Amino acid sequence: MSLKIYNVLNREKEQFVPLQDGRVNMYVCGPTVYDNSHIGHAKTYVGFDVIVRYLRYSGYKVLYVQNITDVGHMLATGEDRILRKAEQMSALPMQVVETYMKGYFDDMDALGVQRPDISPRASGHIPEQIAMVQELIDKGHAYEVDGSVYFDVLSYPEYGKLSGRIVEEQEEGAREAVRSEKKHPADFALWKKAEPEHILRWPSPWGDGFPGWHVECSAMANKYLGPTFDIHGGGIDNIFPHNECEIAQSEAAHDQTFARTWMLTGSLTLDGVKMSKSLGNTLTIKDALARWRPEAIRAFILSSHYSNPIDFSDEAVEAATKGWQRLWGAVTLVREQMRTAVSGSIAPAVQELVDKTKAAFIEKMNDDFNAPAALAILQDYTRQVNSLLNEQGPQSQESLAALDGLYRELGGIVLGIIPDEAEQDSDAEREAGLIRLLIELRAQARANKDWATGDKIRNQLRDLGVVLEDRADGTIWKLG
User: Fold this and answer.
1) Cβ(270)–Cβ(300) under 8 Å?
2) Is residue 76 part of a domain?
3) Closest-CA residue to 29 (of 174, 212, 221)
């Protein structure tokens, strides 16, 4: 089965055929860096991380661009988000940007989100944005009023094709202060005049000012990916006005299709309620990581299709944690047995299990990156691995390596929830080492006919969820 992706633009699932054979150019709207990243950011960027991982796993050479918005993202009041945060912190705007941009990347690194190939900043691409605005003016799609420039939505008949919005039904005041100088209420700012007190400002043909939020992504996507590219991603909350405006200004400027496939991640609620600082129900990624393993948070996010909404709750993450622990328990058992296994050929049953699991996993991922179904395949694989190891006796080094290799491939390379040996945290290593030590102490006690001590070690480990199994070739352990 070839890869199919649900294209939000065309509202149907389509066979994916990139512009260039074997290459994928992809742009995803990045964060506005004015505060700590929250769990909603994790939902979006973990989702796209797995999409990029799978594309690369499938053999595509991916150029992944994800911007950083550090100017121009306006509140409904007309205030720049970064400027307002700078005032609250008594800091310079770029101090705010550097602080929270570093925090964002630290959070993504901790979650195992691989960094984009290019992370362009809006403030570093002002010339490209000015050039694009001028091109729109020259083509009759934009107009200047008192130092500000607006896009004329009525000059682009297809405006609204992504979100389904009808221009005639739109009201004033979407993400920017209402300006009576606009020709139409839906017209949006490409360039804003900087008032005397506005710190973030650049010279332009229309006077000192700063770019509008929407033009940033269009200019940077064009610079690094060209006027037409394969995939544009982002969160569903930005479908209007941001993504809609990106399409309009890009296609009006270049007379070409902007992005051929649009992929949008579903929203995230916290205990059934949309996150809001005014309600006091936000959860930062840092706070989440202080409570749960990053792999468990990823497993929770991947338990829902990237395009679907998901509700974050303690119970849901704890359930995902237990599911991940079952996976990790099997991985640990396989790797533990590899320490003492003898060499030999791969057992036919093992080869069949590996081949069937890989084929099923790929089939699910080729169906619009269906990570929840792929994760279920991996859980079923784990049940069969446990059965194989616990019921069919010792396996050869090669059989265990094949089992472990599939975990590394599907759970590690693609889903990012199974760490390599070198990436295991010290706690996991210490736990495995302590269990091995207790098994050795138990063996010594039994050799000395101290059955009471041997039984005590076995029973107390069982109470902690560690099951020992005595075999002719020694004692093995697994998580119960």
Assistant:
1) no
2) yes
3) 221
